[in-house]
Design goal:
Elements (H helix, E strand, L loop, with lengths): L2 H35 L9 E7 L14 E7 L22 E2 L14 E2 L6 H5 L5 E6 L15 E13 L5 E19 L15 E6 L1 H13 E7 L26 E2 H4 L1 H9 L5 E6 L2 E6 L1
Antiparallel strand pairs: 1-2, 3-4, 5-8, 6-7, 6-9, 7-8, 7-10, 11-12
């Protein structure tokens, strides 16, 4: 083989090698572009519906229906204590009381709440330093069953007393006074939640009070009849539930209401019979009685 043929052979081999290298690079780039443009397969993670709270629940709060919601949760991260949709119901937690604070989005479990009838239920509802006291009510004094656990009420005492008129005769009189204001209702009879909005007159109302207020309630039950007055949920600018709480409704200058404030005939009939009320009036060292 001549030198010329050897040189041509080397040139041919070099050209073929360069062509193969460029072809391989082109095929690789085209393959990469194709893979990049091809739709990617998304691996879906299996999820379950878990019952969570949608707002912070503090210890002692009642669990209501609007506090809970179902939320998708990774199945791998689901614990046995979680309440899963299809296995549990929201009603299982309504009316329960929170033992420890639960943050928004956190699953709610049986360990975090105490249910009515469980040991220690009432103690979990009470705020530190508070007491629970029950008072008997009827359809009228209990506002026909429209008071529910968590509501704020005023406690009104109506009692009867005897008062002497100008002739010294005893007259039966009545007086009403709000003895407690802004008291939280804990339970109606032995229930802490109504059944699907059912309204039923209660026989007993359990309320949260201070030790001193509990003493007032105990005395009030033997002095006369107790009635409940429901407070509005609306708040004033200062954040109080009722800015007029504790103020007399009638402009009598007193913190109580007499039967004569409600019905003027009570006082009018007594005056026409010559049996008005007697008041002792002191003027310096002189004393006299005035009838009205």
């Amino acid at each position: 083989m001549t030198l010329k043929n050897i040189i041509l052979l080397l040139i041919a081999l070099g050209t073929a090698g360069m062509t193969a290298m460029f072809a391989n690079n082109w095929i690789s780039s085209e393959r990469a572009a194709f893979l990049a443009s091809a739709p990617k397969q998304v691996t879906e993670t299996a999820t379950v519906e878990v019952l969570v709270v949608n707002a912070e629940l503090k210890a002692g709060n009642f669990v209501r229906k609007d506090n809970l919601k179902w939320q998708p949760w990774p199945e791998e991260g689901s614990a046995e204590v979680y309440a899963l949709k299809g296995q549990r119901d929201i009603k299982d937690f309504i009316g329960a009381v929170v033992r420890t604070s639960i943050m928004p989005g956190q699953p709610i479990t049986d360990r975090q709440v105490v249910h009515p009838g469980d040991r220690g239920f009432l103690a979990a509802v009470l705020q530190p330093g508070s007491r629970a006291v029950s008072v008997p009510v009827n359809a009228t004094s209990g506002i026909s069953g429209f008071i529910f656990p968590g509501d704020k009420v005023d406690l009104i005492l109506t009692s009867q007393f005897n008062s002497k008129n100008s002739e010294g005769d005893n007259r039966s009189r009545h007086v009403s006074k709000t003895i407690l204001s802004g008291i939280r209702v804990l339970a109606i009879d032995q229930k802490t939640e109504s059944k699907d909005g059912e309204v039923s007159p209660a026989k007993t109302v359990t309320m949260e009070v201070t030790p001193k207020q509990a003493e007032k309630v105990a005395i009030g039950m033997v002095m006369g009849s107790l009635s409940l007055s429901l407070q509005s949920l609306a708040r004033d600018e200062s954040g109080n539930a009722d800015s007029n709480a504790g103020k007399p409704i009638l402009k009598t200058g007193r913190g109580f209401t007499l039967d004569t404030d409600v019905n003027a005939l009570v006082a009018g009939l007594a005056k026409r019979n010559g049996k008005g009320q007697t008041v002792n009036v002191l003027r310096g060292s002189e004393a006299e009685q005035a009838a009205f």
